[in-house]
Q: What sequence folds into this?
């Protein structure tokens, strides 16, 4: 009851906010949904439409996230460090289970979450269609290209990108023998010693889609003949790679490579000339959030240079930033310097989900 | 004599009926309410994103038979693990409760350790030990001049071995509880008649513990069917899938195929109920009473020098199930990247530093201990009454209640959790996302465990003892308090400890039902293993083990005093 009342008040207030459109220089529907008629304010070193005092009064931010425990805790730690009066809590699960959880909760009339982060664009678009996101356009939005925002802007944005190439164990494979291109992973030499991710992975779906477009459907049929081992997370893939259980991984995520290299693992990374496959990690404030000002403040913080620097430099995240003025990653490389392979048509990509799941699960004996 | 001791027959029947129907109603609500949602999902053939379902049908069930290899794998692993667990459980229970093996009380306490060490950690430790390439044992083997690998834990029997060690402790606890309640004069009589110790064990001890063994067999088999962590850690590297890992894939992917997973889970009801039917047929067709009006004092047999051989068996078992895994985890947790022969620069204490600063290890551990205590305490009362209702009361439909109680055991908890979530998210009382929901969930999913453990002992108590008290004019409540419960104390204590441990190590249901303010430890450790590192996970597990071990020492001391008081 309290939630719906809050929501009504917000919307009425928003409808009066049209006059601020020229000031903000953003799309009208987004401004109408901002819930405030005042100009953005500067907090720390970024701009926000949130009422920081109110957000601190709310005193809480509830975050749903696909990221692993340490990564999710890391994101919350970064925000909490900047806003110590706002306590943070989170639930983490794989994107599929997380999405089902939030949809079930909302269909039962429960609205416990403020912000959600997903590792796959398809469920984010679904959630947007269901009206799950709060329509909020952050003043930090101009620092992002339209491709990296929801359509229309204001539902979610790309908080980072997870690029992947090929990785191998350098004690088992010499640099000369190491694969150089994506086609090289089909070498029968890797049979029984190559790894990939399971079909729940958004990145694995992107790789399947992108390489299938480049090299045709036969590419993955050849790959299946290698009896690849499939795992849930990038850490598992690199853990096995570092210990020699697998000697090559077909989907070596750059953030995991940096993490394991730091640990002294004998692993090497290959960026095929056709590009690194990449998936966006998307963040958005949820509507009917119990702590709406804190939710907006978090979105602004996450979009800001400050938040992006945190995402990029936390060892459990190492997301590449798509901000136009993003700082370099810890290795000195900027995401913009890398050639990235995204699906050219995200709608077609989303439509292929079932085909992918069937082929991938079949390949793995499921 | 108190007023309650001389009631009229009418009031006695009313008290029984009141308690019976009350407990049955609570059990039915706890179990059938989520089961309804599970069936609803299994029959949902409409848009999976819309609830309640828009269309019903049986299409989801057709998917089950598309995976014959997975069904065969599941059966192979479950049967192998059950047989191993029962053999380990029976042998260890016999040694520790019926013989004078040195240090048996210490060993008995240690037997619970693999159970709360959690199968995931057992699997992780054995994976570190026995992976063909990187396993420590195989690395040492190659360093000594061997080639290839000495052991391969990533096989069906490797998985079964780990499952039996870390999930099979329940067999020991259940069988040991029965053995403790057995009159040793029966075995003594056999030996006086000239039977050897082995013959006595096989011809007297074994038949007398049949209800306990059968209960344990059904229970362990169901546990193995629903076992997840060991198959996930050890099976996946070798592309060896069982039904739970297949279900896991279905519910994790987007869009999640919850409906097909629910159909798979619901189908397991049929398997479980067939086994329960068999169990009831066997139990009802014979008498397994060992506690009668004749007084006895639990005694152990003097097995002479053989006890040192039996001591060796105990040490070997605990080395495989406790010592080696814990040492391996400690060894791994002190390294940046766990290997058998680490370089000087590979050693670190950083994993422990990170682990103790993580919220997962502080608040989650406290929540887990609190829930363990609550679940065990409420559970023993609830499940004790249910066991009495099923096996002792003459209330109509008591057999039906047993089938209801067994529902949660029949479905992997990963799937049952969805029924729980759908059920309690729409419940008007706001418990969703709180520790109360986890308490309800634990009471529900562990109902079969508690009832089966207590029932194993209850079946051994001669009804004539209660009837005798009734003839003397004792009311039902007075009889339960002064006759049934004191005789049940070993079973109740075992059930309490089992429920406590089971709650702390629970994974499948918690992973979905945890709210932002109601985190518990095991899923956090699992998440760490998935997404952080096996070294940090090892550190977290060791901290959990240490804290839970301290709690167990206190609890065992308390329960021992309760037991001693009861004997007096």
A:
């Amino acid at each position: 009851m309290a939630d719906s009342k809050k929501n009504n008040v917000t919307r009425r207030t928003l409808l009066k906010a049209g006059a601020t459109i020229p000031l903000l220089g953003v799309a009208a529907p987004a401004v109408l949904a901002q819930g405030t008629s005042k100009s953005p304010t500067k907090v720390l070193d970024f701009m926000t439409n949130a009422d920081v005092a109110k957000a601190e009064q709310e005193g809480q931010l509830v975050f749903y996230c696909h990221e692993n425990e340490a990564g999710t805790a890391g994101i919350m730690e970064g925000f909490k460090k900047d806003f110590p009066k706002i306590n943070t809590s989170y639930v983490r699960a794989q994107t599929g289970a997380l999405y089902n959880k939030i949809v079930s909760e909302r269909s039962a009339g429960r609205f416990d979450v403020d912000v959600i982060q997903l590792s796959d664009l398809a469920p984010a678009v679904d959630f947007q269609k269901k009206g799950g996101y709060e329509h909020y356009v952050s003043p930090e939005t101009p620092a992002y290209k339209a491709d990296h925002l929801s359509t229309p802007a204001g539902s979610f944005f790309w908080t980072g990108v997870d690029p992947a190439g090929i990785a191998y164990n350098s004690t088992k494979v010499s640099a000369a023998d190491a694969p150089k291109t994506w086609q090289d992973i089909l070498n029968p030499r890797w049979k029984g010693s190559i790894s990939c991710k399971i079909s729940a992975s958004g990145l694995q779906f992107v790789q399947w889609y992108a390489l299938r477009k480049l090299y045709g459907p036969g590419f993955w049929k050849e790959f299946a003949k290698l009896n690849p081992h499939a795992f849930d997370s990038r850490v598992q893939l690199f853990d096995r790679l570092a210990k020699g259980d697998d000697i090559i991984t077909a989907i070596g995520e750059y953030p995991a490579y940096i993490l394991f290299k730091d640990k002294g693992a004998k692993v090497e990374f290959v960026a095929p000339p056709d590009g690194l496959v990449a998936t966006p990690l998307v963040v958005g404030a949820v509507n009917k959030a119990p702590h709406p000002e804190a939710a907006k403040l978090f979105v602004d913080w996450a979009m800001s240079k400050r938040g992006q620097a945190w995402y990029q430099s936390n060892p459990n995240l190492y997301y590449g930033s798509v901000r136009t003025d993003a700082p370099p990653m810890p290795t000195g490389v900027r995401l913009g310097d890398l050639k990235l392979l995204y699906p050219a048509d995200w709608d077609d990509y989303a439509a292929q989900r079932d085909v992918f799941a069937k082929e991938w699960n079949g390949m793995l004996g499921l | 004599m108190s007023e309650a001791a001389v009631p009229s027959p009418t009031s006695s029947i009313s008290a029984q009926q009141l308690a019976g129907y009350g407990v049955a109603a609570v059990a039915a609500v706890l179990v059938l309410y989520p089961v309804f949602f599970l069936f609803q999902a299994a029959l949902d053939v409409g848009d999976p994103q819309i609830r309640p379902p828009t269309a019903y049908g049986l299409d989801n069930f057709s998917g089950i038979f598309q995976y014959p290899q997975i069904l065969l794998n599941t059966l192979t692993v479950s049967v192998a693990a059950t047989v191993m667990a029962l053999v380990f459980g029976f042998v260890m229970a016999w040694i520790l409760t019926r013989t004078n093996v040195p240090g048996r009380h210490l060993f008995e306490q240690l037997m619970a350790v693999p159970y709360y060490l959690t199968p995931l950690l057992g699997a992780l430790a054995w994976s570190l030990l026995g992976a063909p390439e990187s396993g420590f044992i195989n690395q040492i083997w190659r360093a000594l001049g061997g080639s290839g690998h000495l052991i391969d834990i990533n096989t069906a029997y490797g998985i079964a071995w780990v499952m039996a060690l870390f999930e099979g402790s329940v067999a020991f606890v259940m069988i040991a509880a029965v053995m403790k309640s057995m009159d040793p004069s029966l075995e003594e009589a056999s030996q006086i008649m000239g039977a050897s110790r082995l013959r006595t064990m096989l011809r007297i001890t074994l038949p007398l513990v049949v209800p306990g063994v059968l209960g344990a067999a059904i229970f362990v088999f169901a546990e193995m069917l629903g076992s997840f962590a060991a198959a996930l850690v050890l099976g996946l590297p070798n592309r060896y899938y069982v039904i739970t890992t297949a279900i896991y894939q279905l519910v994790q992917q987007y869009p999640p195929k919850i409906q097909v997973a629910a159909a798979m889970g619901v189908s397991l009801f049929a398997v479980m109920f067939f086994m329960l039917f068999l169990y009831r047929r066997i139990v009802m067709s014979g008498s397994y009473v060992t506690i009668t009006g004749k007084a006895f004092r639990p005694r152990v047999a003097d097995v002479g020098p053989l006890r040192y051989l039996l001591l060796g068996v105990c040490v070997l078992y605990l080395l495989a199930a406790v010592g080696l895994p814990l040492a391996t985890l400690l060894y791994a947790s002190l390294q940046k990247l766990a290997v058998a022969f680490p370089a000087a620069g590979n050693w670190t204490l950083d994993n422990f530093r990170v682990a103790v600063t993580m919220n997962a290890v502080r608040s989650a551990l406290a929540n887990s201990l609190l829930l363990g205590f609550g679940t065990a305490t409420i559970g023993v009362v609830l499940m004790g009454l249910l066991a009495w209702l099923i096996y002792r009361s003459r209330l109509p439909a008591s057999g039906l209640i047993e089938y209801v109680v067994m529902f949660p055991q029949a479905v992997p908890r990963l799937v049952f959790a969805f029924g729980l979530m759908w059920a309690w998210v729409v419940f008007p009382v706001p418990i969703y996302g709180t520790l109360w929901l986890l308490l309800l969930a634990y009471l529900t999913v562990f109902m079969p465990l508690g009832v089966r453990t207590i029932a194993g002992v209850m079946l051994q108590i001669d009804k004539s003892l209660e009837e005798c008290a009734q003839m003397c004019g004792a009311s039902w409540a007075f009889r339960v308090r002064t006759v049934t419960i004191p005789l049940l104390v070993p079973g109740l204590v075992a059930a309490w400890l089992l429920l406590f441990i089971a709650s702390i190590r629970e994974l499948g249901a918690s992973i979905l039902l945890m709210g932002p303010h109601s985190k518990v430890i095991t899923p956090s450790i699992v998440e760490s293993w998935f997404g952080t590192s096996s070294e940090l996970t090892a550190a977290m597990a060791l901290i959990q083990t240490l804290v839970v071990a301290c709690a167990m020492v206190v609890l065992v001391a308390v329960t021992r005093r309760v037991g001693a008081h009861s004997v007096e």
Notes: DSSP finds 27 helices and no strands in chain B. Chain B has one domain: 3-52+66-567.
